[in-house]
Design goal:
The protein is mainly α and 203 residues long. It has 2 domains: 116 residues, Helicase, Ruva Protein, domain 3, CATH 1.10.8; 80 residues, no CATH class. Helices cover 55% and strands 5% of the residues. Strands 1-3-2 form a 3-stranded antiparallel sheet, with helices on one face. Helix 3 crosses helix 4 and helix 5 packs across helix 9. The longest helix has 21 residues. It is globular, with a radius of gyration of 17 Å.
Length: 203
């Protein structure tokens, strides 16, 4: 993470949680039997990944006229799209490259969620979504619109607790933190998710 912070030229705010996922993703690629380790996965991969994610966040902020650009989980897939071609896979994995990259990115995301949000009671959010609430995010969904779409949890301090754990204070940072928690709930199979590439719906 320190190397990414030091070397990457980031055109948007990339929260530590997103940088950590990128670092975990790079480590997972280095340890994967599906990747040709003779070619290796350099630190430059994670640096370029962070820069790609930041660029995606800036693009959204510019097109949606947001006050600030902050990277979110929805921006992570751009790293797979852009950097996947830079990884050399073992010969037997032909045709499975994207599947492998997506799996390792999900694993990295789930590990980060467990690390930072362990012990938080997400039951109020899961129950609200079980009642039919759908939360939409995507490349063109501004941070405030995403936050406005979250279910009303009454007196529950859940949203503030998540934001505090991840050091999120601005609108963009809170959206990033809470989107990460939704992705974590999906990866833990507590809520559903549908995506068409440009838009993702949790429910």
């Amino acid at each position: 993470m320190a190397v990414i912070r030091q070397e990457a030229h980031l055109v948007a705010t990339v929260p530590d949680s997103i940088v950590e996922i990128m670092a975990r993703f790079t480590r997972a690629l280095r340890e994967s039997n599906a990747v040709d380790q003779r070619s290796g996965v350099s630190a430059r991969f994670s640096i370029a990944g962070a820069e790609t994610i930041a660029a995606a966040a800036l693009h959204r902020a510019t097109s949606q006229r947001e006050d600030s650009a902050v990277a979110r989980v929805v921006d992570l897939h751009t790293a797979v799209d852009v950097l996947g071609g830079k990884i050399e896979f073992e010969a037997g994995e032909e045709g499975r490259e994207r599947e492998i990259l997506t799996h390792l990115l999900r694993t990295a995301t789930a590990d980060s969620v467990r690390e930072h949000l362990r012990g938080i009671d997400f039951a109020p959010l899961v129950e609200a979504m079980a009642q039919g609430v759908l939360v939409t995010t995507g490349e063109q969904v501004p941070a405030q619109d995403f936050l406005d779409g979250l279910p009303d949890l009454g007196d529950s301090p859940l949203y503030d607790e998540v934001a505090q754990r991840l050091g999120a204070s601005s609108v963009g940072e809170r959206a990033s933190a809470l989107e990460l928690s939704l992705e974590g709930l999906y990866l833990a199979r507590r809520i559903g998710k549908e995506s068409d590439g440009s838009e993702t719906v949790y429910g």
